[in-house]
């Protein structure tokens, strides 16, 4: 049986990889960025617009969808793909991270986490059985195991306990997905390696999970408040101990330059609300950093957001018009900026793929990051 | 020289007309509904989506665009079409109506209206010279004269004064548009007949403006608080005295059934914020009346908003999904409902055109209105 993941090329100067991941809803070329569709929609854009900007796979959030409209309803409506009108691959998180970041009165137990809904205070419980059932209801192409994400900073004992519990839960998730036919049906389940800032625990987490032979692996517990160098150090302490033949994913990251840095560390998949969130605040990415259209300097600027970038927003609209929409609080501002900002991210990873293939990823990414960060610093 | 307006057919059982209006940015098949783009965008949809739902012409609001971003800026950016990325025809109102409905401390003078901006209280003035200059800056295909819209109800003396002043201003607007080459350049200017509930003043307004030979004529001062029968009576008291060979437009109207009733009175063009506004409140039109998706009954409703209606929203999404988006306050709810509701209006006028051509408009519109209003009453 051919593997679901083909490693097409590994960079010699960095750990960057060019790969191809097969899912039930199509092939994903990696490295890839995955737009986030928290509540069954990537905010402010249609599935058609997502395709137009080059989205290959999107995220759904188990925590949110399970609270509203409920995973049984989504299942009864034909699954998440049909429900939201997106026929490409969907990755769903397990909901564990949102339990830690959003819910009230959580209580970690051996078989899961008891918590209260942030919407109405309802008492809920998520453990391996629940998250695998919910993600099966949603029909995820890639389901994530439930894990315990320790805070930053945390003590070694806290981290040790989180790594151990995450391992037990991951093993149980895989067992459930095997028993109920989820894996045999062609769906994937990815494990998540924790370990906080403890390099040896990061390695232990990655190696122990590797033995369980998951279809893919994620670095969890990064970007939870730590500075960027610490975050990159944690990723670098984890990826070398993940199986080379499986896709690697850092959850919830990052800025454009962070994504290039992590590609250089051997990461294949990324998701982040950053490009969609800043769009709703009037900001746009450029190769010289992020700009905010509320700035008076764009009032009569007839140039596009990025000259020559081939998306609807850059082809059709001036900075002056986009600024007008932002100042007038028009919904179309969010839509057009989301189109641009998602395309900027997806174009960036497409460029990274081409550079890995061409063999000059290291020099290109260094120059790209240098220009971007210089613009951010002066902007 | 061929006329800019061809009257293709006039119904025998009603006063309905099938026509074709030539503008600088293309041909408009009438009767037509014109989506409203108040601030340089039809709220929540892109120009591409407008084309997909069958929009032939859209509206821009002179009052709003002149306050923000300013008509000189729009002119400097290449005109409103280029600014907002819409290459079809645009009709702009004169801004007079918004001065009456939105601004503070207005003072009607012989040569225009002094008022304060509703945004920042700035002291402004709009008269024939100003509104024609602004609409030339915007590059409107169809500019409207400035008029005085009396309140409902008003005394005969108030109405008489408004009709007289509106006539003088209309004459001056036409003179300005002649002198500055606006009309010769192929732009149109439409006059507006006032007259409130006084049938003889309505007739006088229509006949006196007809003598000025405008490219088109509007019924103004309707839907300002009066009940529907009174509104239809005012339209019926005006249209017979407008030139048959020119397009007729009722400003700011109406519900789907009102539009069919006014087509039957010989009106060719309509605009209204109703379909775009209700979209942002979770409502959708159906042949059986308007429904609100917040209603619990749609929670697990897998059917489209309207079975067989060929728009993106009805082809791809269930009522259950749209309800979920509405309940979760997602921007996509506004976009998908606006797509549906605008298409519903544009499909309705397309059906009306076909029925006028086929000669059975009267029976069809009666049955359509009957079903729609029965649904509204029971909904």
Could you state the CATH homologous superfamily of the largest domain in chain A?
Queuine tRNA-ribosyltransferase-like
Briefly note the structural class of the backbone of chain A: alpha/beta
What order do the strands of the largest sheet of chain A run in, or round the barrel if closed? 4-15-14-13-12-11-7-6-5
Task: Indicate the CATH topology of the largest domain in chain A.
Answer: TIM Barrel
The unreliable regions of chain A are none
**Main sheet overview of chain A:** 9 strands, parallel
CATH C-level category of the largest domain in chain A: Alpha Beta
Short structural summary:
Two copies of one chain form a homodimer. Chain A is an alpha/beta fold.
What's the SSE blueprint?
Two copies of one chain form a homodimer.
Chain A: E1 5-10, E2 17-23, E3 26-30, E4 32-34, E5 36-37, H1 47-52, E6 58-60, H2 62-67, H3 71-76, H4 80-84, E7 90-92, H5 96-101, E8 104-109, E9 112-116, E10 123-126, H6 128-138, E11 142-144, H7 156-179, E12 188-193, H8 199-211, E13 216-219, H9 228-238, E14 248-250, H10 256-263, E15 269-271, H11 274-279, E16 283-286, E17 289-292, H12 312-316, H13 319-327, H14 331-358, H15 361-378
Parallel strand pairs in A: 4-15, 5-6, 6-7, 7-11, 11-12, 12-13, 13-14, 14-15
Antiparallel strand pairs in A: 1-2, 2-3, 8-9, 9-10, 16-17
Helix pairs in contact in A: 6-7, 7-8, 10-14, 10-15, 13-14, 14-15
Pathway (chains A, B): tRNA modification; tRNA-queuosine biosynthesis
Active site (chains A, B): 93 (proton acceptor), 271 (nucleophile)
Region (RNA binding) (chains A, B): 276-280
């Amino acid at each position: 049986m051919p593997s679901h993941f083909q490693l097409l090329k590994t960079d010699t100067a960095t750990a960057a990889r060019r790969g191809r991941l097969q899912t039930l809803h199509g092939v994903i070329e990696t490295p890839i960025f995955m737009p986030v569709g928290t509540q069954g929609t990537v905010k402010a854009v249609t599935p058609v617009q997502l395709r137009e900007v080059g989205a290959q796979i999107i995220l759904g959030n188990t925590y949110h969808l399970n609270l509203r409209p409920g995973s049984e309803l989504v299942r009864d409506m034909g699954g998440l793909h049909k429900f939201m009108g997106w026929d490409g691959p969907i990755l769903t998180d397990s909901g564990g991270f949102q339990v830690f970041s959003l819910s009230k009165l959580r209580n970690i137990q051996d078989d899961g986490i008891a918590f209260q809904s942030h919407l109405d205070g309802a008492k809920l419980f998520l453990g391996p059985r629940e998250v695998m059932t919910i993600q099966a209801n949603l029909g995820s192409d890639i389901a994530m195991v439930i894990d315990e994400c320790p805070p930053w900073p945390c003590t070694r004992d806290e981290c040790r306990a989180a790594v151990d519990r995450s391992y037990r839960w991951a093993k149980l998730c895989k067992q459930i997905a095997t028993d109920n036919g989820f894996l045999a049906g062609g769906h994937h389940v990815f494990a998540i390696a924790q370990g906080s800032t403890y390099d040896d625990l990061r390695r232990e987490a990655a190696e122990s999970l590797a033995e369980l032979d998951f279809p893919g692996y994620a670095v969890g517990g990064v970007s939870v408040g730590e500075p960027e160098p610490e975050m990159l150090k944690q990723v670098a302490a984890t990826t070398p101990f993940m199986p080379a033949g499986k896709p690697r994913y850092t959850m919830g990251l990052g800025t454009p330059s962070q994504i290039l840095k992590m590609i250089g560390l051997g990461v294949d998949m990324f998701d982040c609300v950053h490009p969609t969130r800043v769009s709703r605040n009037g900001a746009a990415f450029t190769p010289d950093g992020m700009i905010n259209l509320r700035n008076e300097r764009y009032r009569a600027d007839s140039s596009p957001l990025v000259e020559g970038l081939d998306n609807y927003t850059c082809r059709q609209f001036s900075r002056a018009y986009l600024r007008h929409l932002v100042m007038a609080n028009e919904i179309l501002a969010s839509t057009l900026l989301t189109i641009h900002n998602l395309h900027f991210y997806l174009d960036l990873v497409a460029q990274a793929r081409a550079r890995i293939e061409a063999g000059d990823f290291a020099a290109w990414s260094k120059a790209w990051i240098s220009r971007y960060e210089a613009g951010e610093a002066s902007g």
